[in-house]
Amino acid sequence: MPLIIHPGWQDSGPAHWQSRWQATLPDAQRLVQADWHQPDLADWVATLDSKLAALAEPALLVCHSLGCLTLLHWAIRHPEHHARLGAALLVAPADVERSDAPTEIRGFAPIPRLRLPFPVTVVASDDDPFCRIERSRQFAEDWGAELVTLRQAGHINADSGFGAWPEGLALLTALRERQTQAKEAIHG
What we know:
This protein has helices spanning 17-24, 41-53, 66-77, 133-143, 166-187, and strands at residues 3-6, 28-30, 59-64, 85-91, 120-125, 146-150. By secondary structure, the chain is an alpha/beta fold. The protein has a single domain (3-8, 17-187), classed as Alpha/Beta hydrolase fold, catalytic domain (Rossmann fold, 3-Layer(aba) Sandwich). A six-stranded parallel sheet has the order 2-1-3-4-5-6, sandwiched between helices.
């Protein structure tokens, strides 16, 4: 299954776990948005849809922060394309509805609340400055996702001390297994 890495607002630098995974996982591809600093929701969703359409088989999508919301908006706008995704790992979803959300990302509100039709794991921190854990719990429930809560992990990025993040790779492996089991259950 192709692995697509979707960073959030301002992209992920070389020390970020997403960049490290891209460099070390042979099947990883990075989704590149036209403008990482002034994100446009319609453009970001169209870029994701084009990337998924170009693949020969359903992808496993690994999103961070605003990238998570891009997936949710894609799912609302393109229900006919849901089969393009096999599973999703959503790490530190950004709460763009909070009162102190930066102006640049407020265009991603409202946050879609739909049950996703493929296996999803949400990874959230109990002290993420960009999304309270209560909100992450509600998002995971709304999206039909398994929730993994990390203690004192900040925004689960390089600034929070997450480099290669081997625990995240273990979550990715578990999600791949869930996706394989779901696929086998459908196809017998």
